Structures are given as C-alpha cells and as structure tokens.
Amino acid sequence: MAGEGPNPYNNLLEDLQVGNSSFKYYNLPALQDERYDRLPFSIRVLLESAVRNCDNFQVKTENVESILDWEKSTNDPKGVEVPFRPARVILQDFTGVPAVVDFAAMRDAVKELGGNPELINPICPVDLVIDHSVQVDFSGAMSRGRGEGQESGGGPGGGTVPRTCGNCGNYGKSNCPAFQSFRPNSPRARRPLVHHHSRPSSPWQPGSTAPQAARSSSPMMYSRPTSPAYPQHSNTLHGAMQISQSPVYLVNQTPGVILSVAGPPSAYMAVSADATLVTYNSTSTASYATLVPATYSVNPSAMYSPLPQPQVAPQQHPGYYTGAPYYSQPPTINNTVISEKLSGLDIEDISLRPMGSRSTRFKNTRRKSEDSRSVGSTMSDMSSSRGSSVSTPSLKMPMSSLPSPQDAPGIPIQDTICPFHREESSWSNALQKNQELEFERNKERFVFLKWGSQALKNMLIVPPGSGIVHQVNLEYLARVVFNENKMLFPDSVVGTDSHTTMINGLGVVGWGVGGIEAEAVMLGQTISMVLPKVVGYKIVGELDFVCTSTDVVLTITKHLRQVGVVGKFVEFFGPGVAQLSLADRATISNMCPEYGATVGFFPVDSTTIAYLENTNRDSGRIQEIEAYLKAVKMFRNFEDASQDPVYSEIVELNLADVVPSVSGPKRPHDRVSVSDMKKDFLSCLGNKVGFKGFGMAPELHAITAPFEYEGQEYTLRNGSVVIAAITSCTNTSNPSVMLAAGLMAKLAVERGLSVKPYIKTSLSPGSGVVTHYLQHSGVTPYLKKLGFDIVGYGCMTCIGNSGPLPEAVQQAIEKNDLVCCGVLSGNRNFEGRIHPSTRANYLASPLLVIAYAIAGRVDIDFEVEPIGIDNDGQQVFLRDIWPTRKLIQEVERASVLPEMFKECYEKITTGNEEWNRLEAPVGVLYSWDASSTYIKRPPFFENMPKDAPGVHNVTKAHVLLNLGDSVTTDHISPAGSIARNSPAARYLASRNLTTREFNSYGSRRGNDDVMARGTFANIRLVNKFVGKAGPRTIHIPSGDELDVFDAAERYRQENKPIIILAGKEYGSGSSRDWAAKGPFLLGVKAVIAMSYERIHRSNLVGMGIIPLQYLDDQSAESLGLTGKELYTINLPSNLVPGMKIAVQVDERTIEVQLRFDTEVELEYFRHGGILNYMIRKMIQ
C-alpha cells in the first residue's frame, strides 16, 4: 500500500489473532497519544490511512501529525491541507462510462507521447454498477381498479403502450366481450377480475427444459411463517382470478388448465378439462406435487394428446424444484370445451386453505341457468382448515363465444419472465420491456463497458438489472474492514455519485467526488483535502410510530442546512442512534449532499454487525471486522457517553420532535410538515417565482383542465399528482418503509381505494432483495393493485428517467400552464429534474407516495379530509390505513432473511443473460467507432504537449450566462430526455437518428459532441439575460438570442473567451463531471460565483476552469455588474491557494477570491487539468 519510501510508522504494525487466523494491522492506540481518543471516529479513519500509506512523498509525517492534532488544525483560519488515499472507488454508469472513455483516451495519449498505455490502469479496486440507464417507459398495472384495455403513457419515444392482452388489443375495448362486462370506474371495478384471454408467449421456447408450473414459483424455497400481516386469515388468498392458458396434467394424469389466483402467496386452482376436478396448489414445496407441470404452453388445436412419459427436471436450472417429475410435452386442450364447461358457474365466496394445503372448496356456490354464463363451480362446501374465509363478490362474465386465442396473438398482459429473478411475475411485463429497451438503447455503451471490464484491471462491473449502486454497495460491495494480503484496515471509498455517502451509515467513510478526481484516485493519486471540522449531531429520544426514517432525514436535512455544514463532516452520536436501524442510518447518510456535508457518518456498532449477519456476509469476515475495529478503538457503543469524542460543534435532535414530512416543491431541504402541506402548496402558487413560488395570478389558482383518458373524463388542476414513484436507494434500501408501504397498500385495497389511471405510478427497487421480501411478506399484490409495479432495478424516476406522461395529460398541463406534481421517495427534486411537466416535486416516504397517489393531489389536509371513499360509501382517512410500527416490525422480522441476499448476490455479475451474450472487443487500446453516437474519443488530450503550459490569463471575456442562486448540475448538464428542438437533437438528427433513438443525455455521456450541445440545456434554466426560463442566452456583441451552445460556438469562431456569473451554491446537486467538462468544451475559462458546491468546484479545477468567488456577501447585483461588460483576469505567477486577485471589469476593478484551495489544485491548473497532470506523470 505504501508508495515511494519506507513507512516510518512500521513500528505500529502488530499481529491480531482472530480465531485460527493471524492478521497484521497498524495499532493506532499504540501511539499512546491522548489526542487519539479525542478524535471523532471519522477522523480516526483518515489518520489510519495516513499512517498506513505514509511514504514521505505523497503522504508525509507532518500530514499524520496534522490529523492527530485535528483540534488545533481545524482552527487554523487558512485551513490545513492533508492527503487521503481511499481504499476503493465506486462508479455508476452515467459517470462510469465517461470515466472509462477517459481511460481509453488517456491510453491513446500516453502511447502517442511515447509511454506505455498499460500504465493507465486502476491501482485500487473499482466497482461500477450499471443502474442509471433504465427508464420508466412502461409502468402501471392492469389490475389496479382501472379495468382492462388501458394504455400507459410510457411507450418508447413518447408513444402509448396497450395494457390490454392480445385479444383486447386485437378486437378493441368496445368489441371485447370480457371488457364489456368490466368497466373502469364502475362499482365492478373494485371486484375480482376473471379474464378470458390466453397466457402470453413465454421467453422459453417449445422443447425448453424449464417446467411450466415451476416458472410460476419462487426460486427460493422459504418455509414461510405465519405472517403477522394477516393475523386472522394467515396466507388466505383473495383477489383477482385469471384463466391463463396453461395446460397441465393433474395428479391423476387428467389434462386441465390453471386458474391463476392473485394474492399472498401466489397460488393456482387446477381445473380439469371436464370442469369436475378442482384442486388448490400454492407454490410451497409441501403442495407442489398437486400439479405435475407441462414444459411449455401451446395454443390448443385438439382435445387431448397422448400422455408422454414423465422425466426428471435437470439440475442445471437453478431456481426450480430440481428433481421433480415433469413432462417433456404438454397436453393439448380445446379452449372452447373449457370455456363451455366453466361458463355456467358462478363464484360467490372463496375459502382457501393456507400454504401447504392440497385442496379447497368454493363456499355458498349455486348453479346458474345456462344463459347466465358466469364463471364459477358447483362444488360442495369445503371450509378452510384455519382462519376465516375471504369473501369475493360475484362476477359474471360471458365466456362461451370467445375467440380462439391463436386468432389474436397480441401483447402479453401477465406472467412474463422477470429477467433478473428468472421467475414468472405479474409485475414483469413492464420490468422486462423496460430492460429490453434499456439494452436496445444502450448496447454500444454496454459493449464498451464490457471491454473496460476486460481491458482494465481491478475493475468489477455489475450488469444492468441488478440494483442501484448505493444499495448494492450497502448490501454487498462494502467491506467495512479490508483484508488485503492479511493486512486489516478500514474500508473507505470515493464515488462518482454524490450519494456515495449512503455507505457512511454502515460505518464506512466515503463521499462523492467528481469523475475526474475519481479517475486520479484510480491511478494511485491521493485526494488533497482541507482537514474538515466535524459537527457532532446528537440524537436523543424516540420516534413517534407514525414517523419514518424519511421524515427523520428530511428534518435533519433542513436543520443542518440552517446550521451550515458545507465542507464539514457530520458524525452522529447519542443514545437515540441506538434506536435507529442500520437502514435508517443509511437513509440519513444518503441525503448528506442535500444537507451539504462531506460525510454523514455513523461509526460501527453492534447494529452494524447484526446488519452484516442479516445480509449474509461471511461469518469469519464479520469476526475479523469486529475484532479489528475494537482493537483500534473504532467500534462504538452509542449508549456509552464516555466514548463521545470531541467535536467542532454539537447540535441536537430529539426524535420525538419529528413529524411526518415532505420536502419541496423545488429543493430537498425545503421541508414541509404533512399537516401544513395544503397551506404551503397554495401559498407557493401565488408566491413570486423562486424556490417556494410559481408566481401564478390568484385568478388562475382554481383553474381546471378536463381531459379524456381511456374513454373516461378526468380533470387536472394545480396540485394534481401525475407521477408517483417509489424509487431511489434512499428509501428502497430500507425494509421498514418498503414493507410499511406494502401494508398500507393492503389496507387501502381492502377498503376499496384505488389510484386514478392517468397517474404514472412505479416501483423501482434498489436491489432484487426488495422484490423477494415484498413477495415473501405477501404485500406484492396490493402494491400491484394500486399500480406500483416493479418497472426496473435502477435509479429511474429519481434521476429523471421517469419516461413520458400520457399524451392527454401532457397536453392538459401544457395548454393550461398547470403546476402539477410528482411525488417520489427519492433524494432530489430540483425543478426540471423529475419530469419537464411536473413543476412541483415532493420528496416523501414510500407510504406518503402511495397516500398522495390515492388522493390524486397534494393540496389535501390528511387530518381533516378523507383520502377516499370505501366500497360501502364511507370516508377513509389516512390514519385508517396507516400500519402500526409493531406490525411493520413483525413483518420485517419474518420477511427479510439472509437467504434472500445470498440468492441475489451470488449471481450478481452473471445473472443477466442479455449482458452475458454481449460480445465486446479485446485489447489494451479501444478501437473507436467513428459511426458511434454513444462512444467517441474525447478531445481533452488532443495535441497535448509533454510539458505543462503553466498559468494563463483571461483577457476581455464575454459573459455567456448570468445566473442566480442554486444553479444545479442538472441545470448545467441535464441527465434526462433530449428535447426535440435542442442543439443535441439537431446533431443526432444529422446522424440519421430518429427521435425515438435519442435516448437521454445521461446515456450519451461517452460522446462529447452530444454533451457539449447538452450543456446548459435544461428547460428550467433561468438566465438573467433572457426574460423566461429556458436554455437560451444573448450573444452580447450582436444582441442575438440563441441556444446556449450556438452562442458559445459563435464566441469560439470569433476567438473570444467566455466566463459565467453565478450566485450562491453554484453546482449544487449531483457530482456530475460533465457539468465541468461541458463548460470547458464550450470555451468557458472562469466562473465567478457567490459560493460553490464542494464537488463541482473540484470538478472545475480538474478541467482547468478558474473558480472565483465574490468577497463576503458581495454579488453581481451589489457590485452593479450586468454581465454585458468585458472581464479580464490576470493571475500572478506566484499563485497561493485562496488568495485575493483583481478582475478588471471594463474600466474598473473588483476584488475576488481565488478558489484553488490547495497547492495540488494549483498544480493541476498549471497542467491544464488533473488528467493532463496524470498523463505527464505517467510518461516521466
């Protein structure tokens, strides 16, 4: 690990015996320095890294002393600079692709300069998780009380995608007999649905060895305990029944079909071809023998086929009941015969046995006349073995005159194969289609990344469809303590995503850095940082049962924004921390960028160890972790105040003061109590345009916009919810809030509540583990019923990959200039980020996402207004469907199991067959494809000289943009969709791409031509030169209004330098390196701002752009700057970090601060950027 010279601290190297194994470690307490015990736990990690890596070259003994003397060092007004070498780097694909592109281009540059390109290689471990590419093109569920035959707004390219099955789609809603008797918004819409159409085609082909019925079962054979979620009728089934065309052999070898029953758990009614034998089969091993599955479902053309000989399921199909008998050929059954046999029956009540039972009976059934033609059975009464029955209302549906399924092959509506879990799921229609589109759109990117995984050492790539980077990091990648060649040391990480801080909740020091800085770390460079102050955040008290970790983190975010923690570490302590689960802590750490700190750290304690055990970490490794951390005094007992270190300052939160909250409408730290939400939103409508205002005239507040959707009339108004997304690792990593949301959905569905069909609902978990425990707990069907279907495993809505809204909704919003809303369980809600048409966006817990989706609006006072009306016409309030904390905890204990983590993560790199089939080029150097619009060699190193160019001045620069406060990296370099009238769209169209093929800016970060044109392309960008929001500016010399890129291009052609003026918090938001690369390519030489977000300032430095800051509270306005002046920046040859310099503005001079904060940053600037510096270093 050490660099140039011998480590002067090798005397601290000692042996640590753990079980039968012996390890080496640097014993920091052996320093016998009382200052060590006073250090915050997060600073102890920095100290250990400095001691272990001390070589008196990159890390010097004076650096170690500075960290050890942290109390004094942080009081130095000039700041004390120290190096830090993280143990590893983590990337996501939006930032990972440009990082690998840079590595490929750097290899080319090194070769051209006469060096060895293989030197450009990661030195430390690098993990790259592909999670940012999948979009919510398909979403929603047909069984959410809206009826069949709907269309989503999620088709690729803005089209619509039928929710109907094949026959409905072929014959149309008005002609489909089943749809005629089941209308959305009718009383019947809340009743179970029996649909007549055929089972969709399976990804398995005829002759496949995957058993049919086995595909409908969970791949993990848990012994499911009695679920506390259903105390009176545990595992009782109820809900929608569907005949799916699944020919099977029953236990007596009688051919039959399956009635699929939705409910916890998934189960089936097996009906023989003559409709006389009905048996119940759940998916547990105890009752699996009830049905002997056929291999594949085919459309029937004859009554019965000969019975083939049974075979044995081969072992090479993991996830199925291997060894169970099955038949290589299915029976063929005439659909008409089945339909006629069932058409005269009616179901009144269903009482099913719990899991493991082999049969059931229909209660209170009666024979109907032949002309009533309703589905059911004439069976004698067989009561359930335990618990009470669940009544389902009668549903009559004509079935005898149905068309044959082979006549209408259309779009599948249910039970397709989940590509990640390899099992059939009613959710996976949207999931599979979204993932198929992801591969279709991003194949070039994925092939390139696969090349990188082979060509670059120490790089692990986690394929698409696996989860969100931070949740995968938390559940699997994090080491907590490294074991490198029997040397133990703390895990630490930097990532190219600002929410890398989520891992702080696991006791791992980590934070987000710019992609450029991360690349330097990958090449062995230390991070140069000013030793931070540490704010001790004391947590006391207990949380009210109605509050969630989301409410806690939104409270903390607002509080710490008021305290001011930018550039500081925050370390949590106090007895209240012991009340927080590990997942709660991770949620709080996740939103660290939103409250402005560098880290939000929870030291390791017994709760951490329990989490490692529950997530299936190796028991031997857990013993090493605990023993090591105790040996170096990094293991915490939050109940023991004697362990409290010294902090720069202490602030306190009493958990009892936390109330249910959301944040918005435009910033994550603008917390609003749910009880005040209605009043706050109505105030925002009329407030002047700003973070809490839309500037709407009073007479427009009550405007309504009627529109037609799916043949029904609806009305939008200000405050209407049009997007509701349970998304983001912030909350989907937390089983408590996810299961609570599922339990709320259950209670809501049981009361007959539903979500309006035009609201785009979605569920995008951060890992496959979430799917397993939701299914295992039995809440899955209720989430689906409300439309919260699994649409993909990735960031999705949280990063703006929300996909299009239904066209009718979009037009109603635009035509009436409505302030419609998105509600999401994410961490960012900056204007224009979630969707261009949702001007107001609120961060909320998954429970509140569901609540506002059901309500359909955000201007509701849940205390006094009902959330809806139940089946009996009674008002339902939010409190009526809010699950108790005790129930949530019981369900969590019963449902979140270590085996789930094992099942998901043992195949994490090989579980995606699409990824496995990709063929990537090989070789040290990448063969660039000139025709590619995704991957292109960047111009950053073209014609780069061997020697550093040194300091350069900026002479008579024009201002490209004059911006206000809180301009985010989303404003600077948006990640979402590419507008059809934008410079990037014109470029892609010139390359013969259609609008459907544009994809997103985030997915095209490997192509500088697209990204330069996408810089400042956010439609919500407010430029003071232009009277309204939009990606436009004024070309000052001519006065012409142009797209930002076109104006920059004209300045370039005129050989005129350009700069940017900005307000406070310039570059806040995501750690987006293209927010610095893009301005560099536009020709921006400097930025003058009131203040900077930490990571973005670092990125500007990394690209050689000069960051300047107004003094004290000065601003462009206070200095009388219009932005139409000419600016000259003369830099002295003897630059000093943080020095004051003069800027000539026309005929006068202003003084500003130079925001190169360290000597290393000055060195990067002299080289033209950090990567240029690294290349020259490599060839020396």
Automatic annotation (TrEMBL):
Residues 985-1111 form the Aconitase A/isopropylmalate dehydratase small subunit swivel domain. The keyword Secreted does not apply. Pfam families: Aconitase (PF00330), Aconitase_C (PF00694). It comes from the Eukaryota. It catalyses: citrate = D-threo-isocitrate. Residues 150-160 have a biased composition (Gly residues). This is aconitate hydratase. It comes from Meganyctiphanes norvegica (Northern krill). The lineage of its organism: Eukaryota, Metazoa, Ecdysozoa, Arthropoda, Crustacea.
